[in-house]
Amino acid sequence: MSRFQVKKVAVLGAGVMGAQIAAHLVNVKVPVVLFDLPAKEGPKNGIVTKAVEGLKKLKPSPLGVADDAALIGQANYEEHLEQLRDCDLIIEAIAERMDWKLDLYKKIAPFVAPHAIVASNTSGLSITKLSEALPESIKPRFCGIHFFNPPRYMVLVELINTPTTSPEVLDQLEAFVTSGLGKGVVRAHDTPNFVANRVGIAGMLATMKEVENFGLSFDVVDDLTGKKLGRASSGTFRTADVVGLDTMAHVIKTLQDNLDENSDPFYASFGTPAVLKKLLELGNLGQKAKAGFYKKVGRDVLRFDLESEEYVPGGQKADEVYGRMLKKPAAERLRLLRNSEGAQGRFLWAILRNSFHYAAVHLATIADNARDVDQAMRWGFGMKQGPFELWQEAGWLDVAKMIQEDIDAGKALSKAPLPEWVFKGPVAEAGGVHTAQGSWSASAQKFIARRALPVYERQHFPEKLLGETSLPEFTTAGTTLHEDDAIRVWTLEGADRAPGTGVVIASIKTKMHAISPDVAEGLTLAVDLAEKDYEGMVIWSGDEPFSAGADLQAMLPAFMVAGVSAIEGAEAELQNTMLRIRYANVPVVAAVRGLALGGGCELAVHSARRVVHMESYIGLVEVGVGLVPGAGGLTYIARRAAENAATSTGKDILPFLTEGFTAAAMAKVGTSAIESRKLGYVLESDVIVPHKDELLYVAINEAKSLAKGGWRAPAKRLFPVAGRSGIATIKGSLVNMRDGGFISQHDFHIAGLIAEVVCGGDVDAGTLVSEEYLMTLERKAFCALIEHPKTQERILGMLSTGKPVRN
Ligand code: NAD
């Protein structure tokens, strides 16, 4: 079979999901055409046009940059079906009605290209039944592709095959969804609601049932079932409000309609909870209706009280003792909760027990193996651990016995016993379902290894589950060249590496990967090592963020003892590190993911290339703590302006400086890799990577290909600055902002200093300067500010509360 290439995708249905899926395709640079029904009035593409416009306003933003909405092709089924012929993948995301979907399939079938994959985003309809309407020729190329809302941010995509889906087609689609869209694929069986929603919604219903049993209030439950429990911070009821209670009701109805006592022994607990029924009746559908389980009135969050049908004061927190119990090691935690005196503790044990019980009873039917269940819960429901992982961590057989005791005592939601494999055979012997050989398949009664598709070779360190001990750990993998508390310098190259080849990896180890003087020293050492014997270097961390900035806390002791001169020395060191990276004899590639703020941003922009995960947040945010970027950030802005000006016919630098100046003075952060490109922190020549686990692979290859292309460090040259006239112009507009009350006096002062640095100080426009000269200005401004009481107030505020102080 020839290589499957996705040159163009059609998305059918411009509703909540279809429009956002189209937006995500634009984010990852896949041409897309979005279809919907022809509008009854006005232009025929009216429905799609409205949906595309809506994307620009939606929060969180489905688009990397809002203007890219224009890249979504617009079409309708009356005029444009011919366009389907060019599409390699057709994703159907129309309303959840079997008859409507089948009608549409009949309509499009004649236009589907002979190689194209057709996939439905249905949340719960049978994929096999949907496939039956298709011609025989399309059936092997049809499957389910279940995205989660919001599709840009939710990692999970479930792929569901039918008995007639060709295995190669599913593998091809998995490769595209993983590498091309950056998603985590779970293969689900064609059972009602598939894996994540089946386990997740059953879990929510079970939670609501236990809330009734234990008589707890929503706010306490949300406090208990959010972050403290290792789940999405919105807890149970606020999550339901965010999802929409009508959508919840829809998914619950799918469970109710498609299952019964025989197919699901927990069926009796799937009744729509009384409170949900009442809220639906009242039209209080959650966040979109501004009222649901909760209602915000002014600054207060009220909660719904079923008895009075009124909103009453909320905000109650759980008893602190349970917060402490939830921090204990897993085995102790579960035992403490189960034996606790209070209702809140026993409630927590009950919902965890229910989740273990449910997952074990259904494993054989809903998924190929336990890995798919745990990954689905991590990626689809934002849990830190899936049910099997937690159970395994807490001690497999001990927990199994506790669950069975509760079942026997009639405390569980179903009398169904735990399956035999829980107590006897390989799982019991291995102490859990995830092992070095693979994860337990209850249907095949053996451990199944991860799928070995070529796409996964791009993931050096795939996100692993507890118990998957055969997968490498980024903290110990490869060969360590140097390691201390601040940094690990290492390589993935084998012992057979020819001298002068291969790549050195520098992984920062500090909290939030903050850049302390030790980190700076370690980075310099990594460059030394790379130059000596390798062809390139990559700055990469196995976990987020890339770096939250310079480590102010680490600088404080020196400041206390030796005052500002100590800080000036540390800043100079940091600047030297940045220049060392920029002018290294080998290409240094920054692999950015998550936050790259302040010093983190400066590290990225001084690298030869950036390989950036889509979901990266990059910016010079020093103003927030009353400082200016002091490790080359402003020098970078001045240099970039001069470089860009050099490509134009005019001589004036200032117009090219405005964007960079504003970004630094307003502490703007690019909220996606694409937006950071607009701010000038990511360049056209950089690479944006959709999947976080492919970052290292791409970065290493980028470093190697730069080296093989004959990498030379950039020439060290002088460049022109905007000078005193530039400063005057910028300060003129700053005065207006201050006098208009848009910025504080201290903001005005800092922005003025930024203007002075990026314009090169008190010199004529067009004066040629060096990076070192600008860095000296930058350092002086930084040090002047650090002695300023208002800046000190901002720094102390940030260090103590983590929030910016406005003064
Ligand atoms: P929606 O109601 O927002 O949009 C449905 C779209 O289908 C509308 O644009 C409508 O014009 C179009 N449509 C309606 N009737 C049609 C017909 N007869 N023929 C062709 N088009 C028609 O729905 P949604 O929430 O985007 O859901 C779409 C699909 O995605 C459903 O199958 C749903 O189960 C699934 N899904 C939804 C979510 C979610 O959170 N909303 C999550 C995952 C999957």
Automatic annotation (TrEMBL):
Residues 8-190 form the 3-hydroxyacyl-CoA dehydrogenase NAD binding domain. Residues 194-295, 368-410 form the 3-hydroxyacyl-CoA dehydrogenase C-terminal domain. The keyword Lipid metabolism applies. Signal peptide: none annotated. One of its GO terms (biological process) is fatty acid beta-oxidation. Pathway: Lipid metabolism; fatty acid beta-oxidation. Pfam families: 3HCDH, 3HCDH_N, ECH_1. GO terms for molecular function: (3S)-3-hydroxyacyl-CoA dehydrogenase (NAD+) activity; NAD+ binding. Its EC number is 1.1.1.35. Keywords: Fatty acid metabolism, Lipid degradation, Lipid metabolism, NAD, Oxidoreductase. This is 3-hydroxyacyl-CoA dehydrogenase. It comes from Acidovorax soli. The lineage of its organism: Bacteria, Pseudomonadati, Pseudomonadota, Betaproteobacteria, Burkholderiales.
